[in-house]
Structure formats: structure tokens, C-alpha cells
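Need the bound structure for guanine, inputs here:
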Amino acid sequence: MNILDGRKISNQIKEEIAVEVAQMKERGEKVPHLAAVLVGNDGASLTYVGSKVRSCKKIGFESTLIHLPEETTEVDLLRQVEDLNANPDIDGYIVQLPLPKHIDEEKVLMAVHPDKDVDGFHPTNFGKMALGMETFIPATPFGIMELLRRYDIETEGKHTVVIGRSNIVGRPISVLMSQKGKAANATVTVTHSRTKDLTEFTQKADIIVSALGSPDFLKADMVKEGVVIIDVGITRVPDETREKGYYLTGDVDFDQVAPKASYITPVPGGVGPMTIAMLLKNTLLARERHS
Ligand code: GUN
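Answer from helper R.:
Posting the output first, comments after.
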């Protein structure tokens, strides 16, 4: 069993980006500037956004955090989005999801200018991705692809079973892995909450990408020997004995499944750090495309 060390690879990617930023500075060029909009005080979102902003500082990017109260109206948020679209100083920005229930998420994501949409969530960018055109690839699937590439995992002709069909992970990773190219050319099955006999699919899978958000869901008897496991789930499980009052766990029962796997991502330290690194990569690309 080998660990797919997302923390190590994400640090490598961040170092590579930092070198490019230092060169930009030396040439007297503007450095990439990422903004993040956070509405409300969801604990996990606060952690993610904080981590994104800290990473920007570390690699020499400019960053701006726009933290709006939970009661922010849709109109006010759309105005904020328009301001960011018009602000030439901002190369790329994200609106952290989930948004409060009174705000129409689709309307907000549609308002983000595609050239600044470093999350790759706008239909224009999602469409370009599906067509294999150059665009911003959503950070989590981009991170999974990069992890597979850097560990030289053979995916060609392999049966990949994706669990979950979300717009952020399941859907895009299924598109990317079935395309031509490195870490791709796979035969992909997308499974979801309405799939009958999920185990029948997972037992036959060479590669499993689980993006379900259900702690310890995938057990040893559901996978075959030598499987590659990509665990995207990160759930906070309440635990009074921990300092933070919770611990993080993935979709995969790691202790059970790891001995059967050829490669496996841990949680935390697998896909999570890769997501941040690829968001930074997209922001660097945005800066390069704008200049
Ligand atoms: N919420 C969970 N993942 C993401 C992400 O990749 N981007 C944004 N904007 N929100 C998220």
C-alpha cells in the first residue's frame, strides 16, 4: 500500500508557483491577486477560506477576503460580484459555497465573469472543460488529476468508479478521467444516491473516486485487491475529547481499506491540500492570461 501524499505534492506545486511569482516580481510585473467572498460563518467554510488566504501570502500572491454577514441579500452579493468583475486589480476570485439558503447559488455563479472564475464553476468554463478546451478546471478534480499524474498512476483503460455526481467533484472528475491524456483515458462509471447495488460497481473498480461526504462509508469488502482509492470526503465528526471538538474523516474506512489498496489518499492530507494548490495554480493562469 502506498500513500498518495497530497500534502507533499501540494507543497511542491506551491513552491513551483512561488518561484514564478518571484520572477514576476523581479521583472516588475503585477503579482496574482486572488479574492474570496465568504457569506456567513459556516465553520468548515471559514477554515477553507482562511487556508486559501494564508496560502496566498506564503507564495507571494496578493489576497483579499470579503467576509459578509449571514443576512447579506442576494442583490448585495450580486453587487459585490459585479465590483469584483470590474476591479482590474483582482485576477481571480471565488464565492465560497455553500451560500445561505435565501441566496440563489446558480444566479451568483452565473454572474462571476468567466475570465475571473478560478473555481471553474461558470457554465462557459464548465462547457469548455467538457469539450477539452483550455479553461479553469475546478480545483478539486484538477487536484485529483495532478496527484494521479505526479504519482504516475496508470489510468488508461482502467475502470474508474466515481461515487457522487456533484457539479464540484463527481461530474467534472468523470468528464476529465474519460478524456484523452495523462491520468485519463479511463472507462468511467458515475454512481450516485439512486444507484442500485453500488457494491457491484465498487468491487469491480480499478480506481474509486469517492465524493459522498459519508464518514467511513467504503468498507474492505466493497473493494478489490490492488484498487486505487481517491477519498474526497471530508466530514467533521463531533468528538468532545479533541481540542477542536471534532475530528476529520473521509468516505473510506481507511484502516480496513488501506491494506487492500495499491494507492490511497489519507484524510486529512490527501485531496484537501491539492484543492488549495490548484486554486492557486488557476489564479496564476488567470494573471498570465490577463497580462
Ligand atoms: N465549497 C466546497 N468546495 C468548494 C470549492 O472548491 N470552491 C468553492 N467556491 N466553494 C467550495
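Comments: The two ends are 45 Å apart (CA to CA). Residues 69 and 227 are 44 Å apart (CA to CA).
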